[in-house]
Amino acid sequence: MHCFGTKQRCLVLAPHPDDETFGCAGTIARLKKEGSEVYVIAVSAGDVQHYNVKKYSFVSGKTRHVEFEAAMKTLGVDDHELIFNDSEVHLKLDAMPIKELISLFEKDCRLSIDRLKPTMIILPAISYNQDHEAVFRAGFVACRPHLPDVKPFQKIVLSCEYPALSWSLEREKFHPNLYVDITDHIGAKLKALSCYKSQVRSKIHHCSLENVEWIARVRGREVSVEAAEAFMVHRFLV
Prior knowledge:
It contains 7 helices and 9 strands; from the N terminus they run βαβββαβααβαββααβ. It is of the alpha/beta class. α1 packs across α6 (186-193), α2 (61-75) runs antiparallel to α6 and α3 (98-108) crosses α5 (130-142).
């Protein structure tokens, strides 16, 4: 049985390389196992001097790109794209006119909605990170409904969580209303996340491998399975 009822052509919009893996790598692995197509867009990477990080305090855009390539190979996605590998853009997507981001997602990037015609899109949930919010807002607009005979729109639009969502305002809290059982795919998620050596933190940190597994285990217990990923549904047309 397919987790979304039938085979999908899924497009994941990730603000940065690693967000797709933190958020929905288990679901990606399950979709691929069930015969669906999965495509991933990472919007930006760049040289970063991390604040209050001892190891990997400086990470180059090239490193992020190499890690992204390794993670996508591990997950076996059909195709992937990093739009901006540019320190002048990275962590500044909120300064870009939202119309430009919308156009990128709709028609201007290589894996655009117009070219792929996905049946399903996964967005990042809003968080305190300005790039995450910019990508969510632009992606949400790009998923707006159209007249089907003019331009088909995606029947399934979701947003996925991220460990840092625990730090958010009450009105922006992530309230999941869809769960995907990833019991058989938690290993693939952690293996893909291990590719992001510059981003994974020590055990006590919310972005550690251990915490990511615990989150999946807790989400699983919420729906009585071993491991799950949680999503917010924006549209689910049947």
